[in-house]
Structure formats: C-alpha cells, structure tokens
Amino acid sequence: METYLKTELRRINNANIVFDTIANGAFHCSDILSKSQIETSTTLNNIIQKLIKMDLVEYICPINDKSNKRKSGYRIKDLSLRFYYNYIYKNESTHNILDDDVFYDTFIKDDFENHFVPNVFEMVCKEFLIRKNRESKLNPMLLDIGTYWYDNPKEKKNGQLDVVGQTKDGFIFYECKYTNIKINDEMIKEEISQISKTNLNPVNYGFFSKRGYDIKEKNNYQLYTIDDLFE
C-alpha cells in the first residue's frame, strides 16, 4: 500500500481488522461483526462509514430488494487494497522470508487466476455497461444495474447474481466469463437453464467473454468480447 494510505488507515482504529474480515469472505454486517470481534455494531458502522467516505469500501445491495439489509453487505472497492488483504496481510511474515516468485506461486497464483481476476472482470464489465448506458449506446437503456437476489424454490436455495440490468420491460442477466474457452451454444443453454431455476425471468441475456464465441444461435443475446470493453 502507498505510504499515504497506510498513514490514513492508522488513524482509523480496527480498519485492518475490518479489511481482513471482508477479504476473508464476510459480507453481511452481522458476519463482519461476529468474525472481526469488534465490540458493537455502532463501532463497526462508524469504521465502515469512514472507509466508504475514503472510497475504499462500497455498500452492495440487490437492485430488486434495496431496503433489505439482510441481503446487503460490504466489499473492498479499492483493488490494490483488496489484493493486499487477500494475499499479503495475513501472510506478511512469510512474505518477508520468501523469494517473491515462490511466494506468488505458493500463496497467490491459483486463487488470483481463478477468483480474483474473474471478479475484477465482472467489475470491469459492469463499468462498461454503465459507461455505454450514459452514452445512450445500450438498447434497451438500463434504469439500474447491480446485483440481484434470487430464490430457487425448487432446490430450496437462494443467492446473488452479480451483474443484472433493469430496463422498463424487465431484467437482463449478464454472465461474465473470464476463461480461456470460447463461449459456445451449450454453455449458453446451460446458463439459461440455471437462471430459469431462479425467480429472475429475464427479458434477455448478455454475455462477456475473454476468448470470444463459437456459437451458431445468436438469437437476440447481447454478446461482448474483451476488446469491446476498451472501445
């Protein structure tokens, strides 16, 4: 982390604990409180609000149930901090006695490639949609974009879809694939089959692919490649 940021964070008691707890999977306020062992919810809320004002943490709530705090939570917004608390902070003493390449291969590589980068890819895709929407280049235009909380009554499950846009006619589900495999017809059918088990019922589907597409049935899907993100 930059020296300035380290200095600023030292002024916020227990900021390291909150970052570490979120980085290790805590999302909901109640989870962060119990796992961080911060004494009161008021104290925790004060810390989080300071971090939000610094643009280091963001509040995530589903676009289909914004007032439900049980379905909302917090995420480290600053990517350098997210990387640091995911991989360096908890292994700092080991990092100090290992070669950098060995440390990367042992503690970072697999999770970074399989989880960290794909999650960042989703963020980039979302920012792309917001940018194009502001430029009036999306049809239909989006009235909102964010996560979507779903229920799967058949399998008695619930969860969160990460990138969903809302239009005047309904929702568009976006799947962001950061893999070395081209998206094909079977993968699209499987994704649609999984979404059909939720209560989303999208009016359309969008896909972002790192490697492109190998499909015959384009239908009316919104198809984007990684090159589109930099237009």
Percent in helix: 40-55%
Count of β-strands: 9
The CATH architecture of the largest domain would be 3-Layer(aba) Sandwich
Structural class: alpha/beta
Instruction: Calculate the terminal CA-CA distance, rounded to whole Å.
Output: 30 Å
The main β sheet shows up as:
5 strands, mixed
Give me the Rg, rounded.
Answer: 20 Å
- Provide the CATH topology of the largest domain: Trna Endonuclease, Chain: A, domain 1
Q: Any idea of the CATH class of the largest domain?
A: Alpha Beta
Could you walk me through the main structural features you see in this protein, from its secondary elements to its overall organization?
With about 230 residues, this protein is of the alpha/beta class. It folds into two domains: about 5-95, Winged helix-like DNA-binding domain superfamily/Winged helix DNA-binding domain (Arc Repressor Mutant, subunit A), CATH 1.10.10; about 120-230, Trna Endonuclease, Chain: A, domain 1 (3-Layer(aba) Sandwich), CATH 3.40.1350.10. The chain is about 40% helix and about 20% strand. The protein has eight helices and nine strands. The strands form three sheets. The protein has a five-stranded mixed β-sheet with strand order 3-4-5-7-9, with helices on one face. The protein has a two-stranded antiparallel sheet with strand order 1-2. Strands 6-8 form a two-stranded parallel ribbon. The longest helix has about 35 residues, at about 100-135. The chain starts with a helix and ends in a 6-residue tail after the last strand. The relative contact order is 0.09. The mean pLDDT is about 95.
